[in-house]
Amino acid sequence: MQSSFQFRRHGNVDKGPSVPADAALSAQKFFRELVQIFLPNGGRSSVCDNLVAALHPDGRARRSSVMGLTIGTAGWSIPWAASARFPSEGTALERYARVFDGVEVNSSFHRPHRTGTWARWAQSVPTHFRFAVKIPKTITHQAELRATEPLIGQFALEVAGLGAKLAVLLVQLPPKLEFDGPLTSSFFSLLRQSIDAQIACEPRHPSWFEGEASSTLKALRVARVAADPALGETAAVPGGWEGLAYWRLHGSPAMYRSPYSSEAINAYAHKLKRAKREGIDAWCMFDNTAASAATGNALSLMENC
Length: 305
What we know:
By secondary structure, the protein is α/β, with parallel strands linked by helices. It contains eleven helices and twelve strands.
């Protein structure tokens, strides 16, 4: 079909329609045309209806209201060693989602995904399943949070395909990015206005773990990620807004590779159960995927919770 929207390309990847940021906040008609462009004929109607139904009247993606405990991994690859714990039929995501209740999508940090791709992922998982999505490096590492309205607008268009299953936006900051109060406030305010989801920030500069930064994040309703390995004791525990506790476990001592011991799993299980008892929406995502340790660790943690 003929479309009035122009597309930009990066390598072999469609970056999607080039539109102003405010279009991300109001265009149900736009989404109908967008889905028809991105999906084959057989999938247009159902995905389009799901996408439009997932919008607020002001165009923001509606966040799932499900609260509790979410355990999973970065990505949904299932290693051979753990394959017997999952159903044998279906796509990798479908199999993963029958065991875990949530996943962290990191590929969105490196490259854009079409709205239709997000929508297909949302359709392939159960209603209760939730996605945490890492925002693009063009926003965090290249623009360093400055003048990001067009970039956020573009990203909002893309992830709207998840509809109500988008739960958390993960904002990982570059190690050299220092805390700046006014910039932090303007950026996270814009992000929240553009996309309706909880926000977890993973800063990696020491200035973000001091009093002013913590109080600013709390006022903005932005949770600070508890990471492992951590820069220090403060970085190892959730901070900022107390309505969300988000652990990202990258593996230690070998980052992205080392599995966690049974003792470590038990310790994290205790922390997660305590957060849940206190009414906090608690997430724990294993990112030690390089040597396929994440899935086994996540399964063990789930059994202990």
